[in-house]
């Protein structure tokens, strides 16, 4: 079994499917976490949001956005947004799974959709939304080096921070908050590796942690 097949099998164990489609009390959004294999190593694509945007300007994130009335489901939203933001055709994404949804500080229910793309994909970022697209080795998010975390009572848990320097461009990126947590989840699940630092949840049984977190956030609405 090659690295892609192994990662796919690992990730499918955490697939939530449409288990949370019943939630309708808060607005929904989806992000696509694109994975690919380069030189025998798993990578993910990330974006830097345009500084002209009204929300989260200049922050690192995965391609994604709010649910459109025409979207059939969370996967449809993630694929549509990825095409709009970085020019990734939906048919070029091999969807693997949907992971546990998280609630943002602004009250959006965000579902992470994980899929494989070809290494040869060349992003065409929409300048109105995206100012840069870059690749990060997935195991970067498992290492303590370049990682920090702060406990915020308001967030009811750890907020993770990563400092990443893109070797191709030399650009420096701060990856934190929800995006960092999503990256940690995907890396830990795909690689079946425990992080070198305290991640704030049990990687062997993540469902109970995220279910409790979701229930607490929903109870306050």
From TrEMBL:
Residues 26-159 form the Nudix hydrolase domain. The chain crosses the membrane at residues 173-191. GO terms for biological process: coenzyme A catabolic process. Its cofactor is Mn(2+); Mg(2+). GO terms for cellular component: peroxisomal matrix. InterPro entries: CoAse (IPR045121), NUDIX_hydrolase-like_dom_sf (IPR015797), NUDIX_hydrolase_dom (IPR000086). It is found in: Peroxisome. Its EC number is 3.6.1.77. Its main location: other. It is an enzyme of class 3 (hydrolase). Keywords: Hydrolase, Magnesium, Manganese, Membrane, Metal-binding, Peroxisome, RNA-binding, Transmembrane, Transmembrane helix. It comes from the Eukaryota. GO terms for molecular function: coenzyme A diphosphatase activity; metal ion binding; RNA binding. Monomer. Belongs to the Nudix hydrolase family. PCD1 subfamily. Fatty acyl-coenzyme A (CoA) diphosphatase that hydrolyzes fatty acyl-CoA to yield acyl-4'-phosphopantetheine and adenosine 3',5'-bisphosphate. Cleaves CoA, CoA esters and oxidized CoA with similar efficiencies. Preferentially hydrolyzes medium-chain acyl-CoAs and bile acid-CoAs. Has no activity toward NDP-sugars, CDP-alcohols, (deoxy)nucleoside 5'-triphosphates, nucleoside 5'-di or monophosphates, diadenosine polyphosphates, NAD, NADH, NADP, NADPH or thymidine-5'-monophospho-p-nitrophenyl ester. PANTHER family: NUDIX HYDROLASE, PEROXISOMAL COENZYME A DIPHOSPHATASE NUDT7. This is Peroxisomal coenzyme A diphosphatase NUDT7. It comes from Xyrichtys novacula (Pearly razorfish). The lineage of its organism: Eukaryota, Metazoa, Chordata, Craniata, Vertebrata.
